[in-house]
Write a structure and sequence with these properties.
By secondary structure, the chain is of the alpha+beta class. The protein has two helices and five strands. The protein has a five-stranded antiparallel β-sheet with strand order 4-3-2-1-5, covered by helices on one side. Strand 1 and strand 2 form a beta hairpin.
């Protein structure tokens, strides 16, 4: 009789540990899914955007039309290691930190847009 009671205890212990493992997995799975969603929808795009901004700032050169984070439009007249001198008007040059440049205006892309608009309007006629 002691052998049978030993088997019953072993089987009951195995069932109990299986249910606790299942309960643990069912608790962890939602957290893993939430972390995955945050990574793919928030963290990864932000890192991608930050790398693009760093590339843009590193590629600044004389003659680029830029916009600062303060909304000032100008043309880069010279670059230094950590700063950029932006010509705002004929007699006005302002020195900005490279990180203060929000974007570069591409006159080439505007020309391409103008050409494509002209092509579309001539096709419509």
């Amino acid at each position: 009789m002691s052998f049978i009671s030993f088997l019953d205890g072993t089987v009951a212990g195995a069932a109990q540990s299986a249910s606790s493992t299942t309960q643990f997995v069912s608790t962890i799975v939602p957290f893993v899914l939430i972390i995955g969603i945050f990574y793919f929808f928030l963290i990864r795009p932000q890192n991608k955007k930050q790398k693009e901004t760093e590339k843009m700032i590193a590629a600044l050169k004389k003659g680029d039309k830029v916009v600062t984070i303060g909304g000032i439009h100008g043309v880069v007249s010279s670059t230094k290691e950590k700063t950029v001198i932006v010509k705002v008007d004929d007699n006005c040059k302002i020195e900005f930190s490279r990180s203060a440049i929000a974007g570069v205006e591409n006159p080439e892309s505007k020309k391409d847009e103008t050409k494509s608009e002209e092509a579309n309007s001539s096709e419509a006629k």
